[in-house]
Amino acid sequence: MARRDSRRAEQTACPCGQGLPYADCCRRLHIGEADAPTAEALMRSRYAAFAVGDPEYLLRSWHTSTRPARLRLDPGQRWIGLEVVDTERGGLFDSAGTVEFRAHYREAGRPGTVTERSRFVREDGRWVYLDAVST
Question: Domain YchJ-like middle NTF2-like spans what residues (predicted)?
């Protein structure tokens, strides 16, 4: 699946909620120019990947032991907001961390929210998504 209108997305605010243009924020991680420095930064970049339609990045940023063989994003789901609720560890010098968040979306005109507590670990020195528990 191709990314959704990535040129337009690069000029708008990054979906991750940090307030930077997408081109200066999560896009750098999506195209491999940089790695996420913290577990929270990786979680935000993964949310942004859902929002811009980048399943390849989602797979690349997934731990090898839990990564699915393929990933299909729902084209009818539009991600509209992210709230970070809590973080535990996951900093520059940590090897594991947890981020709890609420991701808001619209599908078929109806709002929805995913609340999740995601676990992240370092694999080969890079932060990757391990798994999650829905809350």
Answer: 38-132
